[in-house]
Amino acid sequence: MAKVKARSKIVNPAFREVAVSGDGRDITGNFGELMSLRLPQDSVLRERGGDYALYEDVLRDDQVASTFQQRRMAVTSAEWGVRAGGADRASRMAADFLSEILHRIGWDGVTDKMLHGVFYGFAVAECLWGRDGARVTLEAIKVRKQRRFAFDHSGRPLLITTDNPNGEPVPARKFWHFHAGSDNDDEPYGLGLAHWLYWPVFFKRNGLKLWLIFMDKFGMPTAMGSYPTNATEEEKRRLLSALRAIQTDSGIIVPEGMKVELIESSRGGQVSYESFLDRMNAAIAKVTLSQTLTTDAGGGQYKADVHKHVRNEVVKADADLICDSFNRSVVSWLMAWNFPGALPPKVWRRVSEDKDLRPLAERDRILFDMGLRPTEEYLRTTYGEGWRAE
């Protein structure tokens, strides 16, 4: 007779969060002096003082500024709009309300500033609420400096002030913030592009300094003066003054018995400061854009198309990050206050490569003549936002 297999005991799911990072038991945590704020886990920041002013200086590099501007402009130049959450009247009114607000406050400008969160690792913006009759409206969104904020052990933002360097809590539903680049959810500061760009920029600047010294040595030989063994200190000073005058004067005089020579610099090998700086610039472009051919010439059309596709994927990810974080926070707050019964609208950006839609349009026309009608989802996926099936 076959044995009946014993039924295994059903284990109920554990609903409580266990591996929290704010209970003081997180072995990776780096907490502030009074345990009220959490410090960034970014190794470069920790080693260099922990001030985000360090990364502001990285943004001054010409290649960093150029490539990061290209990345931001690719997002802000893309079409954007607001899609209603449903077809009912309340949902459409909510979408129109949000669209009017974003046009009034300048959504592209807000997006451009908030995209610096990708560079630093996180971004914080303050929502300036106002009243429009019975509704709560958004007067402006002001993006704030990263180094003005810290985060507590629960990931909530804290405002750093002169009165409270350990940070003070901010009002709920007041600040829109997000983090990017980190490989875990325990790091509210994220890990921005600046972390990876710091060393290429550091090496590049030091290489430029050495290149300037090199050009000075080869452009103007070093002057060497010889003085007799019985020369006085005054005579030595006069000889040194004469050597310094070589840098600016076409002719000099020296005391009798002293000699002046020019030492020509010479070197061999294939050492090139220019190629070193090009290598650092390529590293900066690769970190910022995930490729190099949209900033540097060469490689052929096929490679250029591949690199452009890679850049577009990065740009789309940036656009999705901004829109999704905004929809989850500011949009949901506005809807809860003004349209509690409506399905929340969503802000979107269309970041995609242009494609020839004529073959698809011809096929869809034939299907339409046969009596088939496209769904709104199909129209949105194929032709983008702004279309509706009749």
Write the topology of this structure:
Elements: H1 43-47, H2 53-58, H3 62-76, E1 79-83, H4 89-105, H5 107-114, H6 116-120, E2 122-132, E3 135-144, E4 149-151, E5 157-159, E6 168-169, E7 175-179, H7 193-219, E8 222-226, H8 233-245, E9 259-263, H9 273-289, H10 300-338, E10 346-350, H11 358-369, H12 376-383
Antiparallel strand pairs: 1-10, 2-3, 2-7, 4-5, 5-6, 8-9
Task: Provide a quick synopsis of the model.
With 390 residues, this protein is α+β, with helices and mostly antiparallel strands. It is 44% helix and 14% strand. It has a three-stranded antiparallel beta sheet with strand order 3-2-7. Strands 4-5-6 form a three-stranded antiparallel beta sheet, with no helix packed on it.
The overall number of domains is 3
- What's the helix count? 12
Radius of gyration: 31 Å
Principal-axis shape: elongated
Give a count of the beta strands, DSSP E runs of length 2 or more. 10
What spatial order of strands do you see in the largest sheet? 3-2-7
Structural class call reads alpha+beta
Span of the ends, CA to CA? 67 Å
Mean pLDDT: 81
Could you state the order of secondary-structure elements as H and E? HHHEHHHEEEEEEHEHEHHEHH
Proportion of residues in helical segments: 40-55%
Largest sheet: 3 strands, antiparallel
User: Segments where pLDDT lies below 50 for 5+ residues?
Assistant: 297-307
Indicate the proportion of strand residues.
Answer: 5-15%
Explain this structure.
This protein has 3 domains: 43-196 and 307-353, no CATH class; 197-295, no CATH class; 358-384, no CATH class. Helix 3 packs antiparallel against helix 5, helix 3 (62-76) packs across helix 10 (300-338) and helix 7 packs antiparallel against helix 9 (273-289). The chain is elongated and about 105 Å long. The chain is an alpha+beta fold. It has 12 helices and 10 strands. The chain has a 3-stranded antiparallel sheet.
